[in-house]
Amino acid sequence: MIIFGTKGYIYQLAILTLVCGHCGNPSAHTLRKRVTKFTLFFVPLFPISTKYATQCTFCGAEQQITSQQAEQLQLQSAGGQGAHGGQPHGQAQQPGQHPYQR
After folding, report:
1. Inter-residue contact 53 to 73 (CB < 8 Å)
2. What is the per-residue pLDDT for 76?
3. Which residue among 2, 8, 50, 98 has the highest number of C-beta atoms inside a 10 angstrom radius?
4. What pLDDT, on a 0 to 100 scale, did the predictor assign at position 80?
């Protein structure tokens, strides 16, 4: 008898200050990576799916993003812009960086 299946893992990569596209509030957003791994006898062997998303901590809206957008946001948070890596609320943001940014 062979026991196989999948198991999901969620990793929080960063917390960013962004303007939410759903509620319009500037708030903290969590950047998360969701990895689904193939398991054999309950041992995770290799990833079969990787997805990235941001979630607004104010309204709870979640937005799927590409791996390139996630990488950009991680670099932005590592750059030390603001307390949580986002841009200060009074500055203009560059277009096309992220679906939530205006």
Report:
1. no
2. 86
3. 98
4. 57
In this prediction, residue 84 carries a pLDDT of: 43
**pTM for the model:** 0.71
What is the helix (H) or strand (E) element at residue 7, kind and residue range?
strand 4-19
Residue type, 44: P
- CA dist., res. 82 & res. 69, Å (int): 19
Q: Which residues of the chain, if any, have pLDDT below 50?
A: 82-102
| Beta strand residue intervals within 26-70, DSSP E | 26-40, 43-56, 62-65
The two tokens of residue 28 are 């903290």
CB 23 within 8 A of CB 61: yes
* Nearest of 88, 32, 84 to residue 62 by alpha carbon: 32
Cβ neighbours of residue 80 closer than 8 Å, sequence gap 6 or more: none
